[in-house]
Amino acid sequence: MCEVEKANILLVFLHRRYKEREGSKSPFRVLISTILSQRTRDEVTDIARERLFSMYDTPQKLADAPIWDIEDRIKSVGFYHTKAKRVKEVSTILLKRYKGNVPNEINKLLSLPGVGRKTANCVLVYGFGIPALAVDTHVHRLSNRLGLVLTQNPHDTEIELSKIVPADEFGFLNSSMVRFGKEICKPLHPLCKICSIRNICDRESRQS
After folding, report:
1. What does the alpha-carbon distance between residue 107 and residue 169 come to, in Å, rounded to a whole number?
2. Distance of CA 26 to CAs 35, 78, 104, 108, Å?
3. Where in the chain is the domain with CATH 1.10.340.30?
4. Contact 148/10 with Cβ under 8 angstroms?
5. Within a 10 A sphere around the Cβ of 82, how many other Cβ atoms?
6. Which whole number is the average pLDDT over 62-83?
7. Are the C-beta atoms of residues 65 and 88 closer than 8 Å to each other?
8. What is 27-127's CATH number?
9. What DSSP line would sit under 94-119, residue for residue?
10. CA-to-CA distance for 7 and 118, rounded, in angstroms?
11. Is-above-0.85 flag for pTM?
């Protein structure tokens, strides 16, 4: 079975299991939230994000905020000292360079401190509705485990997946694969016996 066929089967399965799609959100909220989420569990990020945005929900407010208060509001996330400095610096740059707006170009996003390809692509797809494939550890791991790609790093996974997945599915693929990777296709002990797509999985074929 070729990679395109596998990708189509995967998408059909994911749409059946996870019917909802990610709605459009504020690019600024997506940007800051994704910076906070790095190396941090989603449930922890959610709490820190809401505590931060309850007081500082614009670039101006966050740029003017005392660093100690930012740290206090996000201290549940990993590396919160560094992230507090980054979100304050990013907000200041947005004000100086882009009149307080988040840019919608990949290179401009990548020039911001603490912003890598995954974060930049999240902003594009979830903040602006621009087709972009955000590849985190779940998407990278599952794509290789299923045999969709054979890559060594998330950037290469992004390139290869973009060849076999329709652009209008990029946002859904990321959000649904993350959930699938947490619920079924877990890193160390995947629940293969209850997985509906184990017949297309390279891991399953190697063990049979």
Report:
1. 22
2. 14, 23, 12, 17
3. 27-127
4. yes
5. 13
6. 96
7. yes
8. 1.10.340.30
9. HHHHHTTPPP-SHHHHHTSTT--HHH
10. 20
11. yes
Q: What is the CATH topology of the domain spanning 3-21+134-207?
A: Endonuclease Iii, domain 2 (1.10.1670)
Assigned token pair, 91: 């907000």
State what percent of residues in the chain have pLDDT above 70. 95
Concatenated DSSP letters of 115-177: --HHHHHHIIIIIS--------HHHHHHHHHHTS---SSHHHHHHHHHHHS-GGGHHHHHHHH
Query: What's the token pair of residue 188?
Result: 């160390």
- Compute the distance between CA of residue 140 and CA of residue 1 in angstroms, rounded to an integer: 20
Reading the block at residue 92, the tokens are 């200041």
**Residue 131: C-alpha distances to residues 117, 122, 168, 201 (Å):** 13, 10, 6, 26
Average pLDDT rounded to a whole number, residues 58-87: 97
